[in-house]
Design the sequence.
């Protein structure tokens, strides 16, 4: 029985609260809330008045004879004066701040990326060269570097012609003593003009080696050349395959034409030049052509012409802009440039006409009029009322949004919104 009675009391209490809420909603005005004495119209009026008075402060003492207005009469200077044109001075100082050159500093993250890219590129070069094998692969007293390059990379048909030639009789008398008709390879042996210069040089050096050593040593050399040719073919295939397309940005087949000592020189020179250019800094937005010119100046005459293209290609791919703006130093120098600007001064002798009747008032003329108290400063009531209307419209929109979406803001919420809105122009 007591439970039913308590439930009935609670229900009546809820109905009473709902009736109060509906009556408040239908009436359009909130006379009194449960916590006492809250009148939104009063808050709205205070809000509009406060915001208008604070934000519209510039209308309290507005000059009627401002820059650009027409002078109603001729006004002369009552005495000599020399006064600073604060507005013009500040404009010039702002131009000095804006026009100050930015201070750049090295970006350590960009530097580390450049070094990582260089290390990666050189590691790739070492990887490809290791697949091709060491070079030169025999002593230069046996085969010259030129011949070793040729026999390693020439096509199979040309190499077979070289092999067939050195394995066949080399004199015309030996050939005529044969009872069979000369083969093509034998004809090549007696007619070297059918071979190109590289083939002839390779044949001559191999024959010379054959004469100076045993047939077994020659066979070992030829077997080694076959192995070198196979390794070279695999290295070229690895360089040109799709998975290594990144490496082709800075390497081509000339990589395999370098001796090990020359390749070591390339790595040393590229590393040193990279460190120099990174320490000097590379400006963002620097055109590629100018970057190549800077690289060329760094290369100088210390690098042999044979490896210069590879060095330029490596550096041009690895080097990237590494300078960023230093905001603190830029701001400091900009402020120094602004403070170095001389104040703009306006002078007038006693009795000199400041502005003639019917003329537009210029900035220097306004400075003089305002200094002498002749700019007719007063409250601009029309502007102040217009601004108050604008503030009223904004506050009304907020109030309508609250009721349209049934936000039911509490009194402290209204005061918080009011204080936040009021604090913004105060801070400005």
Sequence:
């Amino acid at each position: 029985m007591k439970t039913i009675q308590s439930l009935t009391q609670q229900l009546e209490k809820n109905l009473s609260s709902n009736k109060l809420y509906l009556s408040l909603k239908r009436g359009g005005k909130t006379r009194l809330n449960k916590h006492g004495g809250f009148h939104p119209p009063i808050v709205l009026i205070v809000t509009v008045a406060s915001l208008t008075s604070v934000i519209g402060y510039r209308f309290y003492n507005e000059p009627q004879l401002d820059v650009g207005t027409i002078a109603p009469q001729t006004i002369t200077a009552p005495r000599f004066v020399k006064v600073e044109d604060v507005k013009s001075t500040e404009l010039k100082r702002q131009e000095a701040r804006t026009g100050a050159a930015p201070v750049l500093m090295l970006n350590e993250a960009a530097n580390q990326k450049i070094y990582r890219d260089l290390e990666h590129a050189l590691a790739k070069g070492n990887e490809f060269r290791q697949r091709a094998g060491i070079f030169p692969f025999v002593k230069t007293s046996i085969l010259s570097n030129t011949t070793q390059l040729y026999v390693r990379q020439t096509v199979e048909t040309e190499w077979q012609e070289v092999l067939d030639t050195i394995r066949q009789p080399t004199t015309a008398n030996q050939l005529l003593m044969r009872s069979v008709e000369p083969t093509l390879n034998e004809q090549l042996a007696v007619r070297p003009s059918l071979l190109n210069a590289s083939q002839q040089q390779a044949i001559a050096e191999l024959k010379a080696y054959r004469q100076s050593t045993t047939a077994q040593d020659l066979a070992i050399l030829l077997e080694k050349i076959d192995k070198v040719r196979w390794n070279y073919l695999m290295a070229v295939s690895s360089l040109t395959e799709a998975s290594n397309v990144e490496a082709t940005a800075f390497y081509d087949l000339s990589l395999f034409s370098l001796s090990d000592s020359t390749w070591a020189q390339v790595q040393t020179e590229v590393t040193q030049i990279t460190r120099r250019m990174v320490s000097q800094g590379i400006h963002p937005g620097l055109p590629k052509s100018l970057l190549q010119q800077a690289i060329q100046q760094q290369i100088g005459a210390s690098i042999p012409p044979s490896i210069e293209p590879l060095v330029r290609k490596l550096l041009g791919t690895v080097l990237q802009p590494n300078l960023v703006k230093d905001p603190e130093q830029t701001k400091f120098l900009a402020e120094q440039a602004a403070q170095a600007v001389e104040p703009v001064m306006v002078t007038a002798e006693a009795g000199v006409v400041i502005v003639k009747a019917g003329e537009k008032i210029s900035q220097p003329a306004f400075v003089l009029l305002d200094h002498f108290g002749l700019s007719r400063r007063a409250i601009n009531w029309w502007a102040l009322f217009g601004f108050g209307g604008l503030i009223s419209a904004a506050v009304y929109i907020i109030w309508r949004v609250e009721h349209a979406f049934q936000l039911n803001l509490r009194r402290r919420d209204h005061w918080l919104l009011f204080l936040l809105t009021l604090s913004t122009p105060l801070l400005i």
Residues 14-38, 170-191 have pLDDT under 50 and may be disordered.
